[in-house]
Design brief:
Order of helices and strands: HHHHHHHH
Number of helices: 8
Strand content: under 5%
Distance between the termini: 23 Å
Helix content: 55-70%
Length: 168
């Protein structure tokens, strides 16, 4: 997936306004190809258990993991998000995740956070996903999916992945 022309300039400007260091290149696309055979299966039991524990569709958790980290438990984003579900350090700490690179803790914490977002947005999956990506306050501020190209692309990508995982 390619980002729309000008997105890099927008992201650079946002980084400049926020006082963050400028981005070196376009951010990664949010829709990786479905992982190589077997790479996602090793986490399926963890995903299923956590999804059942928090009453979340396991296909949705799997879609988030696929898009956030590509099933790489050691993934770290440029913003510092960590692990399979790319938990920000403050979010991880608030969820009681002491080691965000531990797949069990990360999936459990990320699924718990997702459950909270689904509850907050009355089961509205696109809004919960937007909250997962941009933060719930941005969703509330805009009264829907925020007008951020990154967040809009993320929501669409996760929903596409979710539909594919549901068909399996």
């Amino acid at each position: 997936m390619e980002f729309p022309a000008g997105l890099s300039a927008i992201l650079q400007r946002i980084a400049q306004i926020e006082g963050a260091p400028p981005l070196a290149a376009d951010p990664p696309a949010f829709e990786p190809a479905l992982p190589r055979t077997g790479s996602n299966d090793r986490f399926q039991r963890l995903i299923d258990a956590s999804a059942a524990k928090y009453g979340v569709d396991s296909a949705l958790v799997k879609a988030i993991v696929a898009n956030e980290s590509g099933f790489d438990p050691g993934a770290t984003s440029p913003s510092g998000a960590q692990g399979l579900m790319q938990l920000e350090p403050a979010t991880a700490a608030g969820l009681g995740v002491s080691d965000p690179y531990d797949p069990v803790q990360n999936i459990n914490g990320g699924t718990r956070y997702l459950r909270g977002l689904l509850d907050r947005f009355h089961g509205n999956m696109p809004l919960a996903l937007a909250g997962y990506n941009a933060g719930p306050y941005a969703v509330e501020k805009y009264g829907g999916v925020p007008p951020y190209a990154e967040t809009q692309a993320y929501v669409e990508a996760v929903l596409r992945s979710y539909r594919r995982y549901k068909q399996r």
